[in-house]
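Table S2 (text version). Query chain:
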Amino acid sequence: MFLKIHQDHARFRQIVKGRVREELRKFISNGELIGREGGKTVSVPVPQIDIPRFRFGERQQGGVGQGEGEPGDPLSEGEGEEGAGEAGDKEGEHILEVDISIEELAEILGEELELPNIEDKGKDRVVSTRDRYVGIKRVGPESLRHFKRTYREALKRQIASGLYDPARPTVVPVREDKRFRSWRTEEIHEANAAIIYMMDVSGSMGDEQKEIVRIESFWIDTWLTTQYKGLEKRFIIHDAVAREVDRETFFHTRESGGTMISSAYKLCAEIIARDYPPDEWNIYPFHFSDGDNWSTDDTRVSIELMQNQIIPASNLFCYGQVHSPYGSGQFIKDVTQAFAGDEKVVTSEIADREAIVDSIKTFLKSGR
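Corresponding structure-token output:
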């Protein structure tokens, strides 16, 4: 019975994952999973799932093909007229919320978008430790006593001394028979990554553009979290001046004024130099803007910062340009021209929410 329950649960989980996979593009573009995030799980709304089973009708109602009627007659009056008629007393379709882990969500994302696993560079400066059992010794705490080895030693001693009686096979260990597990503490160097999100919050970036950035960053986080044991996130907002903020401020700041992209890149370069040595960290700067910059001079400074400081230290530099009716959209052209053929620089144009899926795939498909 216990095994049957586990089999049913596993089957149910597979059905849920199948439904999520089918609706993944809708979930991403609508952003409805973000508000359901809770720690290491996400609540996913799926239609009611029924396990297929036979359902018996009431007695004396006839069988299949019995009763009055001609071929082609409808099975019941009004069939197909959805929503017509008076109020009824039948239950409607229910939506079931099922919790799935971030790891399962990332697995589905990776399968659907055919994302390769990331090849990391460097190791984190902070190491974790674990105790590993490596052998047997004669002394140790009772909690680590190896019962099989202790029994074997006691049996060998009793046989050698002639005390063992096959008719009464009682084996009683003494202190000299006891054996204990020995362990060794090992240092584990885990690969860590840092994502530095940068976003233009000038007057030309509206609420819809910021929501697109919020949705896309959630899925980028979801994927990279499963690729690295530790993932740090930093957030930079900028108009004509850049500053580092927390996640909540990043996605809900309302600003106005002009745009100087170089201000964000300067702060990004400072954060990398101060906190993330490139030989120890996997670094991913993501910049989102509508492509409107203050001047060609500032664009030139921004490109130089990318070339000389940010890109050499990064695994990948990603620039996402969100369409805005108020932005010029010029910056993506400048970046594409300056870094043509550079595999560490990826650009993506995000016209609307429907384009988020393709943008994520464009950013992460290289496996860097």
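Notes on Table S2: Residues 1-50+94-101 form one domain. The chain has a mean pLDDT of 78.
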